[in-house]
Design a protein that fits this description.
Elements: H1 4-20, E1 26-29, E2 32-35, H2 38-53, H3 64-74, E3 79-83, E4 89-93, E5 101-103, E6 112-117, E7 125-131, E8 133-134, H4 141-144, E9 153-154
Length: about 160
């Protein structure tokens, strides 16, 4: 059960998901990758409009906003969408598989995908698959909820 404030913030979060997730919530400013902003959202909106009207108009899109969105999409090459058992959605490395685990690493800027290795012993070992974008937890929201921490042995 959610209180009204939590429910409203979750709904607002999902409204942004269609344009934030495909770009990993990133855009390029010069040579820096930064959090996606209004330009990327405008590019998404313009692209959606163009797709909806495309049969009637074969014009090529040339706006700065659309180019910024398409450039951000291009940087996500080698990634695929996923949904977690907890209902989170995002982008993972293309080689991620069902049953891989998304984990927050203390001190890291992004979550990572890990795969449990079959080692047969009591200690579990994990292989790092790569970084992930998980919509709704990129600004520390998950950690702020008092999540359980555990140590992973990474090989």
């Amino acid at each position: 059960p959610f209180d009204i404030e939590t429910l409203q913030s979750r709904l607002a979060l999902f409204k942004e998901a269609p344009w934030r997730i495909p770009t990993g919530d990133l855009e390029l400013r010069g040579v820096e990758r930064v959090r996606a902003g209004p330009t990327v959202q405008a590019g998404y909106d313009e692209l959606r409009k163009w797709i909806d009207e495309q049969p009637a108009s074969h014009q090529r899109m040339r706006s700065h906003a659309c180019e910024a969105y398409m450039l951000a999409l291009g940087k996500m090459h080698g990634r695929k969408p996923f949904s977690s058992s907890d209902g989170f959605v995002g982008l993972a490395p293309a080689r991620a598989e069902v049953n891989d685990v998304v984990a927050i690493v203390a001190g890291a800027d992004v979550p990572f995908v890990f795969r449990r290795l079959a080692d047969g012993g009591q200690q579990h070992h994990w292989q790092l698959i790569g970084e992930a974008y998980v919509h709704g937890i990129m600004d520390g929201e998950f950690v702020a909820k008092g999540s359980k921490w555990e140590i992973l042995n990474v090989c």
